Amino acid sequence: MHLLAYIDPGAGSLFFQAVIATALVVPFYLRSQIRKGINRLRGRPSIATSTEIAALPRDDDLPPEQP
Amino acid sequence: MTTPHSRDAAPVTRDPGSFRDPSGFVFRRGGVLYRQVNRVFADDWHAAADAGILRRWQESGWLIGHEVADTSLAADPDRALAILRPDPVAFVSYPYEWTFGQLKDAALLTLDLQEDAARAGFTLRDASAYNIQFHRGRPILIDSLSIERLEPAEPWAAYRQFCQHFVAPLALMARRDIRCGLMLRDYVDGIPLDLASTLLPASTRLSVGLASHLHLHARAQRRSASAGLSARPVRGIGGTRRAALLASLRATVQGLRWSPAGTEWADYDQHTSYSDEGTRAKESIVEAMLREVGGSVAWDLGANVGRFSQIAARLGRRVVAWDVDPAASERHYQRLKTSGETLVLPLVQDIVNPSPGLGWAGAERAAFVDRSDADVVLALGLLHHLAISNNVPLEWIASLFARLAPSAIVEFVPKDDPMVRRLLGSRRDVFLDYTQDGFERAFGTRFRVLAGVPIPDSGRIVYRMERT
User: What is the ipTM of this complex?
Assistant: First the structure.
């Protein structure tokens, strides 16, 4: 954590965040894949939402997207 | 707080609400607002500058603009890296004065900022609702130092704060009672999640977002506290997990809705006691008086949905429109968003029990009565509510108005008015001084009455007065 993390993140909140983010990632990933699939079926270009763009991994342990 | 040492003669006053963050603080020198960036923040500051993220946020209207000023202006020269001169926000308001829609828009902006920061390899260091102000009708981030480089797999340190400052109060306002927004007055770091969890209806546990970010989050905090856990490094929140968390928070906030109806004054504008002619005449009278008063700032007390605030704005006045009714203020805010009006800021405020000074030493958040820069106070359809519903003596009302502005436009509503008859319907009339003469006498202790114009088809009179 940064030296200047001046607010109290809360020990319980930090741990909970890791847990809930893990729980949320599967439906999030599935939703984004379903959205892309629907767009492909409709002949639309695959447009990522802002949160999906934000997900472009820096340190992701999920398998890479299949082309 | 005034510090004696400075490099020029202008006195330096540190903002009493800007002290928690070691990376910098806000101060005034000679009345001009500055933000000092401290050397300890150098690496993150230079990284943000190199990435251009702050400039992009300013261009997007997400971050208040600033100019870089000379470091000789520093309030604490030994620690200063840079000095910024931010664009001043016209009026500082606080989350406990915001409507539901304003708080929700502030929450969504915070998420926009965090998502954009993550894309660029940064993160918001905090997610305080006090980092947001309403500027030209829109929420805007005012803390240019609220950003730092993102470390790999690092959790969002401000997640708890976001849930307490935004998710909890929005959930309480939407799902329990709109008046719960006032709880932010008592909890300056946001509503504790365990309290919100206790107060919310059981049905909120069926919402994935509220169950996660509020109820389970509260339980995790309780368990952590009872187990005596100290903060230890947590890893494993990479890009996709981070995005999933933010997407869930966004969906949770967007899913919280409140319909501004059902309160006492939500529909008042459609059910007044005026005839159509009386309404038009009142508007003309008020507009003419506003022209005569001049000035640039008006405070509209009891603004309801802003009919008369709009008149002041059309004349180029910046208006702060206060009303005790959260539904009326919310309808006002939604209408302004739709119209794109930038001069009017609607806020929720009970004039009888206004926002006090809060926070450290009672000075971190300024009191309602200390924030007025108004040239004129509008008090239309308000006086009888203060004097009769709340038993406030007319002289005391005059004193408050005189404290707020040098001029006042006040509507006297006589006892035979249907609205006053309704107020007195179930109580004894103990208001012996509440007469036109009594009003003029009481206000004459603080003001000089310049004009009194009757409204046709009603016994009401609109007065223009000037503070003595």
Answer: 0.82
Chain B residues with CB under 8 Å of A27 CB are 244
pLDDT (tens, 9 = 90+) of chain B, 468 residues, equals 444 444 556 889 999 999 999 999 999 999 999 999 999 999 999 999 999 999 999 999 999 999 999 999 999 999 999 999 999 999 999 999 999 999 999 999 999 999 999 999 999 999 999 999 999 999 999 999 999 999 988 899 999 999 999 999 999 999 999 999 999 999 999 999 999 999 999 999 999 999 999 999 999 999 988 876 555 566 678 889 999 999 999 999 999 999 997 666 766 665 566 788 889 999 999 999 999 999 999 999 999 999 999 999 999 999 999 999 999 999 999 999 999 999 999 999 999 999 999 999 999 999 999 999 999 999 999 999 999 999 999 999 999 999 999 999 999 999 999 999 999 999 999 999 999 999 999 999 999 999 999 999 899 999 999 999
> How close, in Å, is residue A25 to chain B by CA atoms?
5
SS3 of B269, please?
A: helix
d(C-alpha B370, C-alpha B354), whole Å: 11
Interface of A with B in 24-63 (CB under 8 A): 24-25, 27-29, 49-62
* The two three-digit tokens of residue B214, written as one number: 């509020």
In a domain, B132, yes or no: no
Question: Which residues in chain A are closer than 8 Å to B21, comparing Cβ atoms?
Answer: 4, 6
Answer yes or no: is B131 within a domain: no
Q: Print the domain residue range for B113.
A: 102-121+153-255
Query: Where in B416-459 does DSSP place strands (E)?
Result: 447-454
A14 vs B contacts (CB less than 8 Å)? 155, 157, 159, 231, 234
Last residue of a domain, one of B206, B231, B255: B255
Cβ–Cβ contact A5 with B under 8 A: yes
The single-letter code of the amino acid at A16 is F
Tell me if residue B124 falls in helix, strand or coil: strand
Kindly report the number of other CB atoms within 10 A of residue B419's CB atom: 17
Residue B262 inside a domain? The answer is no
* Assigned domain for B94 exists: no
Q: How many domains does chain B have?
A: 3
pTM of the predicted protein model: 0.92
Q: Are residues B284 and B357 in the same domain?
A: yes
